[in-house]
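Q: Okay, next protein. This is Cytochrome c oxidase subunit 3 from Harpactocrates apennicola. I've checked the sequence twice, so it should be correct. Can you predict the 3D structure?
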Amino acid sequence: MVNKVFQPYHIVNISPWPLIVSFNVMVIVLGLINVFVASQWTLWFTGMLGLLFCVVVWWRDVIRESMFQGCHNSLVLSGLMVGMVLFILSEVFFFISFFWSYFHFSLSPGMEVGANWPPTGVSTFNPFGIPLLNTIILLASGVSVTYAHQSILSSKTYTFSFSLLLTWILGLYFLSLQMFEYFSAFFDMSFSVYGSVFFMATGFHGFHVLVGSLFLMTMWVRAMKLQFSSTHHFGFEAAAWYWHFVDVVWLFLFSSVYWWGS
């Protein structure tokens, strides 16, 4: 007779998605090489479409495990929270590398940049134009996502859904303004170390805003399907934590790169 040991942890079933995601990431990297060498985007787009498909079906499985199979109990949720905190911490150090590089060159500019910062010939952005507007937009989105959190805690489903909708719309508005800013720039990524650091830091932040907006869109769709309750909504909490991280990074970018750096 076999004795079954009951334990509170979630033992994940065998899934094909990690292997397929790894394969698609490899295709994306090979596609980037093909873009750099032959300016052909077909392989890269194929990998991106495959990765997008895997993200959708993998998240579907996680939602199914959480909502319908009851696998995410309090102990599992605590592990998910620790994992999300560690992920955001890794992202913090990712952006620290950009700020480190920026301050290294700006506080002690060498002869290669004309011993001046910003380098001679660089026409920087007016920090009180689009950058300030984007700051207001992200701060407003931080308020709306916090209000959404308070709404779900109070079981106000309509207010929760509306606040989530407003948050990701503000995120897309931010991205549209940043794209306009890039097209109106008087320098590009190849214009000395200033252009490299500026577009790497703000560009990766824009990518994180895009990921956060997609994250919030997914949570909004789930909210419209009434898949959250006042006691079980960690998916939304993870998205809110990530969005607040994006807000804080932008405040550092605005104050150091746009305002102080100009």
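A: Here is a summary of the prediction. The radius of gyration is 22 Å. DSSP finds seven helices and no strands in the chain.
Q: Noted. On to the next one.
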